[in-house]
Design goal:
179 residues, alpha/beta, two-stranded parallel sheet, disordered N terminus, disordered C terminus
């Protein structure tokens, strides 16, 4: 059984009002999110730029397109796209326990999201694109993501600045809390 089918295990009660939840949900962006901006920054440091224009004929509007090496990078939020690790689920991935719509509504919605992601990746590969998925939680370690992107780009025959990628691509993250 696929890991995303075992979502029932992580039930979390909703502790805020319906009005506040609606307000929160209305503020969620679907373009130029912080994770997408981080990946674009990593790509720029590797010598790549992604244009805002997407090639015609794609079955979706991808998050990031590198047209010359024919690579599409999908930056997925762990919650909505149900990130699962090899032997356990990502801690960001949980299932709401209560609410007007109920638990089964959420389980079905998440299953549909995962199936849609799989169909989309299959269609893009069928059109000759290489699809990379970067998960939100992976961006906690941007150097690891940059190294992975550099490996894929080298494997695709594009050697811009990926040869120079050694050590840290980004400065150390700022410390949070008291200074």
């Amino acid at each position: 059984m696929a890991a995303w089918l075992s979502m029932e295990q992580a039930d979390v009660a909703d502790t805020i009002s319906k009005v506040r939840r609606s307000w929160n949900m209305s503020r969620i962006r679907n373009r130029d999110t912080e994770p997408e901006r981080i990946v674009r920054s990593l790509l720029r440091k590797l010598g790549y730029s992604s244009s805002g224009a997407n090639p015609k004929g794609l079955p979706v509007v991808p998050d990031i397109v590198l047209a010359r090496p024919k690579i599409i990078i999908q930056v997925h939020g762990c919650y909505w796209h149900r990130h699962s690790l090899k032997d356990r689920r990502c801690p960001i991935t949980y299932t709401p326990k209560s609410g007007r719509k109920g638990r089964e509504f959420w389980l079905q919605k998440f299953r549909e999201n995962v199936l849609r992601d799989q169909r989309t990746a299959r269609k893009l590969r069928g059109l000759g694109w290489h699809v990379i998925t970067v998960w939100e939680c992976q961006l906690r370690r941007p150097d690891a993501v940059a190294a992975r992107l550099a490996r894929v780009l080298r494997a695709r025959g594009d050697h811009r600045r990926t040869e120079q990628h050694r050590g840290s691509v980004l400065p150390e993250p700022a410390k949070r809390g008291k200074v």
